[in-house]
Amino acid sequence: MNYLIINGSPRRENTWKVVERIKDTLSDNDTSHNFNEINLGDINLPQCTGCYNCFNNGEHTCPHHEIISPIVSAMKSCDGFIITSPVYALNVTGLVKNFIDHLAYFYHRPYFFKKKALIVVTTAGSGHKKVGDYLDETLRNWGYNERFKLCFIHAHDGSGRLPLKTKKIIDKTTNQFYNSIAGNQLKSPDRKALFNYNLWRAMAYNAHIELDNKYWIENNMMSSEFHPDIPCNVLKKIPYKIFYRILLGFLSKNTVE
Fold first, then answer.
1. 33 lies in the same domain as 155
2. Per residue in 71-127, pLDDT tens?
């Protein structure tokens, strides 16, 4: 197993202690593994400039392509993706937000339909659920088949150790993450995934962004209510077939130039 860990904290403290427990649990499950760790605070990724190059001209035209491209390649090739963020001002850290901004084209051109992810969020106060949900929604839009969440308030005791109860929660979720990858089974999309998919499909069909249209057609994603390689009951798709048709009609009359 190859795991990619994106550390969204500018330090390796409270959130990282949870990651270390995750690594130990994954190692217990599989002695033949590799952890590729990327600290966003160390890669000197400039702020996203909002240039729209990734949307209109392709992600390779991003002004920071040389920095972000190797990370994307690692995301595409890893077996399991782990992303972490402590709560800063009731949101993800600036490092994580900047990272996500650089990959905004994955909303338009989702890719990771056969991938599984684990989200780690810690806080000393509040906002852990909000941040966990935001990361979950982001990864769902990017296509991730399953996303597991570990979101904690005060994950550690007064001496900085993980309590037994916290360890058990970490181990249980990590084992679910591992078994989902090892089992190589793809989960049927939930309603939010179907909603998002057909929203972006309709926008791609509308061809407001030419690259989006080309991507969806070339990957055989335009002709179905969800990615053709992912199991999804026909009856489950029916409402989104209707939703998609309604969107096409709306977009044909309300295209934003």
1. yes
2. 999 999 999 999 999 999 999 999 999 999 999 999 999 999 999 999 999 998 899
Q: Which domain holds residue 218?
A: 191-253
In Å, what is the CA distance from 27 to each residue of 90, 138, 218?
32, 27, 38
End of a domain among 183, 210, 225?
A: 183
Structural contact between residues 194 and 226, judged by C-beta atoms closer than 8 angstroms: yes
Please tell me the total count of domains within the chain: 2
pLDDT digits (tens, 9 = 90+) for 4-46: 999 999 988 889 999 999 999 999 998 888 999 999 999 999 9
Residues 117, 146 within the same domain: yes
For residue 104, give the amino acid letter.
A
Max mean pLDDT range (115-119, 160-164, 208-212): 115-119
- Are 115 and 156 in a shared domain? yes
Structure tokens at 229: 């390689």
Residues 196 and 93 occupy one common structural domain: no
The model carries a pTM of 0.94
In Å, what is the CA distance from 122 to each residue of 34, 84, 131, 174, 204? 24, 9, 9, 16, 36
Structure token digits, residue 234: 């026909």
